[in-house]
Amino acid sequence: MWTIWRSEWKTTTRQKSYYAILILWLLVISLLIILEGTNGSISGYTNITGTIVNIMLYILPLFMLIYGSFAIAGEMENGQWSLLCTYPLEMSSYFFGKLGGQFTAQAVSYSLAYWLSMLLGLITGLSISMNWMLVLYIFSLLLILFFLSIGLFLGAFVSTRWQALTYSVGGWFVLIMIWPTLLIAMTSALPYPMIGPVMKTAMFINPAEFTRFFLVVRLNAGSIFGQAYDSIVPLFEQGIVWGVIFLYGFTVIAFLGGLSIWKLKRRRAN
């Protein structure tokens, strides 16, 4: 697994697109911080913070889905997968090595851009809450981890990068763009007592909604979700939330990893 991890890290960081994405993150985050800084100080959950979160939700998942799916689909397409199949390599080591290498590379790129942007904001005289910076940073890393996992899962089921791109955009469209519309359409046909449990279940199904809920509650704005979520808001306000995040992340990655490993084993056997 560690060999795959290092190989993925080196391959990703040697690509010119990796540094182009780093510059893109730096520009985007800096502009968002400048926008938020028009209030004079940055803390808590404001309308502009909501805009920043939405932009992050649009950009990060799409990029991570594409990166993750291409990491496997590219090897399927160029024949490297066939070569790897000649070695006694466990598919679990292959998948989690890919995930570890990709996450390390993407997290380093994003972290560098993020903290440079925050430093520039502080240098220019902005008052930025440490809690705000840390919560938004953790929110972003969780998005990177979860959607890289989904991207690798999609990559295990395709054979070309075009298919990977199609699946990635389709998954992004469902989980990010039309998810609220799907929820409204689904809950409108349900009896009123069932709406709350269904909405809370849907939040755990979609990692983007889970991470967004975490961020909003940690910025002391959990009330905006309404009465349906009142029973779980206190859970995310307390220290136990870190255990919840660990358990949720472990479950999501284990589930996606298990399905991906099963599919990769079948492809190897064929």
Automatic annotation (TrEMBL):
User: Would the keyword Transmembrane helix be found if you checked this record's keyword annotation?
Assistant: yes
Question: Mind listing the UniProt keywords for this protein, alphabetically?
Answer: Membrane, Transmembrane, Transmembrane helix
- One annotated Gene Ontology cellular component of this protein: plasma membrane
Q: In which domain of life is the source organism classified?
A: Bacteria
Q: What is a GO molecular function of this protein?
A: ABC-type transporter activity
Membrane-spanning ranges? 18-35, 55-73, 107-128, 134-157, 169-190, 240-262
Report whether Transmembrane helix shows up as a keyword of the record: yes
- Alphabetical list of Pfam families matching this protein: ABC2_membrane_2 (PF12679)
Q: By what name is this protein known?
A: ABC transporter permease
Identify the species of origin: Pradoshia eiseniae
